[in-house]
Fold this sequence. Notes:
This protein is an alpha/beta fold.
Amino acid sequence: MKAKLLQPSSEGALQRRRLIRLVRLPDLEGAKRMAEIAYLCGALSVSRDPSSQSIGPRAHISGFLEGLRRNGYEANVYLAGEDNTIPKALRAGSAGSHGSPGHRQATARDLARLSVAQYAGWRARRHIRPSAALVYERHATFQQIGLRRTDHSVPWVVESNGPFWYEASRERSNLRLIRTAKKMELECYRQADLVVAVSDSLRDLIAAEARLPPDKIVVLPNATDPERFRPQHAIKDRSRRHLVVGFVGYVAEWAGLDVLFRAVRELDPTGETLRIVVVGHGPARPGLEQLSSSLGIEAAVEWTGSVPWHEVPQQMARFDLAYSGQVEMEVGSMYHSPQKLYEYQSMGLPILASDFADARTLISSGGWGWLFRPGDVTELANRLSQAGGELPNPDLSASCRASIVKNHSWESRVADLLKVLRSTSLL
């Protein structure tokens, strides 16, 4: 995770950064005294509210901010999804809608979102205090925060969790002004002092689309909060005879749940030994319900829908085996860093995962689970059968948990990023 030493935008910027380092207070009794970081996100549907439907982004933001705190940094936070000056109806429905409305309706909706995003960007920039040593922005569609900044003396880092112009137009079908969104997103990456991507595939995609040198992009995978996801939640009914395979997250086509359904049908057509629990919501659910019915396994599938954030660990505690079966995406690669992998393993749960980078790294570095070729029903069925014969295993569960706490907590992940920021003179 090394990044190129970036040149400051001006001599004044260099002097400001030197001044920041000079005025930073020395450690007192080992406690860090660091400069402030402004954390901004213009996504209208993302907040830390327990009722937020954006479970993944909420967990990511909360974990990242806790990681900053544990590393001694104060974060001054602005999330457009928590801005009460923006009508709640706009915040709740901006990015969560699905389907393909008429052209005029979709265009009008995008223009409204663009206008609100401009306002949210203005609000976010006003939120940056003079004491900020760094601005860290989580990117959102129709980004208006970093693009309109006038003060380039404060380093600006942009985090990307995916090519949003692609996701919104192809995976969620809720974007009409695709060219506008793409142009703004790529320009945001170009203007940033550093880009943080969640995977190698995403780094390469951004580098190609924005024409950036790869060493201007740092890869920082997702992580977990080991205090929230703890094995002591796992109280299972050992009187039952079936194996529970669980999934938590956004129910989209790329999640590969159809592959799991077909594999379960192949192994257990009567539903006597295998059960599936799906925790979450998303546009793929109606099609998956029809698929489970056509396969004759609808009685073996439980849909919880969205659950309160604090209940997610308890739902995961019901699992014997946790599923993360992403498939290749139309854009040409699976660029996500599945946060669920780290949360599953933090609970001491074995994973059944498609063979992509994050899962492969976890398994090879102290994790516990079985990998299968993405989209391969037969190989998934074979791995599921193998897992069923090797569970439970308390020793592996404990060692898996220990590896996650040491190497994949948000505290350790943010510490890695801070090292890069210091080495590039951005902090």
